[in-house]
Amino acid sequence: MIAAKARFRAARKIERATGVRIPDQAFHGAFLEAVSTLDWRSLDEYTRQQLINFSRDFLTCACRDSPLCGCPEREFVTTIIDLRERGLDHRQISGFLLDEYGIDIYPADILSFLEDSVHRLEAIRDVAALQGREAVAQRAQARIQGIEG
Description:
By secondary structure, the chain is mainly alpha-helical. It has one domain (2-148). It has helices spanning 11-18, 29-37, 45-58, 71-85, 90-101, 107-130, 134-148, and strands at residues 7-8, 103-104.
């Protein structure tokens, strides 16, 4: 999954500022728990803003097991696809994620993820068409077209 390849670039900076050891994988359970309980006042403004954006966009579900419920990873996937549908290419998406959230991810990994997403959506479209579920097939086709640009 693409979320497993996402790294928080300032993880070591957070460790130094807070004294709390955290992994650099942005969607690792220990990172998610640490981010939701950190005292951010000791961080510089830029890193603090990235963590605020990260928390706001990926850690705001109401699940009982939050943040370990899987919602942050699903939101991340949705964000990447939405950015692509808005016209950003894989390099621009990588740059946006780094600037907005401090998430470092290789453009090639994003490109591979988008290609895999199109293949899965094609399978969903084809199965839905075989089962006579035209609305599902049409939604899948619309998402394919959005990703392919």
